[in-house]
Amino acid sequence: MKILLWYLLIINALGFAVMLADKRKAKKNKWRIPEARLMGVATIGGSIGVLAGMYVFRHKTQHPKFTIGVPVILAAQIVLAVFLISWFSKGSL
């Protein structure tokens, strides 16, 4: 359980950081981080960090792919976590 918490902390910090990096690159008209990579970080557990980065840095907030997609990913992750916690607490595995 401790490893999972560390993983989530690190991946969400990474999600926050990639949103900051992409915003800075956008301001300087430099090569950008692909949207698929940003969404990928959200998908593998960094959705809270990506979502926070979106609104803190005002980045990708006009893109439905992000304003709808990232909250949907987060909701799915919450549902999955609740299911798994419920499953394991019953001793089903």
Question: Helices, strands, pairings?
Answer:
Layout: H1 2-27, H2 35-56, H3 64-67, H4 69-89
Helix pairs in contact: 1-2, 2-4
Describe this structure in words.
This protein has 93 residues and is mostly helical. The protein has one domain. Helices cover 78% and strands 0% of the residues. The protein contains four helices and no strands. Helix 1 crosses helix 2 and helix 2 crosses helix 4.
Task: Give a quick set of tags describing it.
mainly alpha, 4 helices, 93 residues
Mean pLDDT: 95
> Helical segment tally?
4
Structural class: mainly alpha
Instruction: Determine the fraction of residues in helical runs and give it as a percent range.
Output: over 70%
Major pleated sheet: none
How far the N terminus sits from the C terminus, by CA atoms, comes to 16 Å
- Poorly predicted spans: none
Q: How many independent structural domains?
A: 1
Overall number of strands? 0
- Along the chain, the helix and strand elements come as HHHH
Task: Determine Rg (CA atoms, Å).
Answer: 15 Å
Q: In percent, how much strand structure appears in the residues?
A: under 5%
Shape: elongated
Can you summarize this structure?
The chain is 78% helix and 0% strand. It is mainly alpha-helical and 93 residues long.
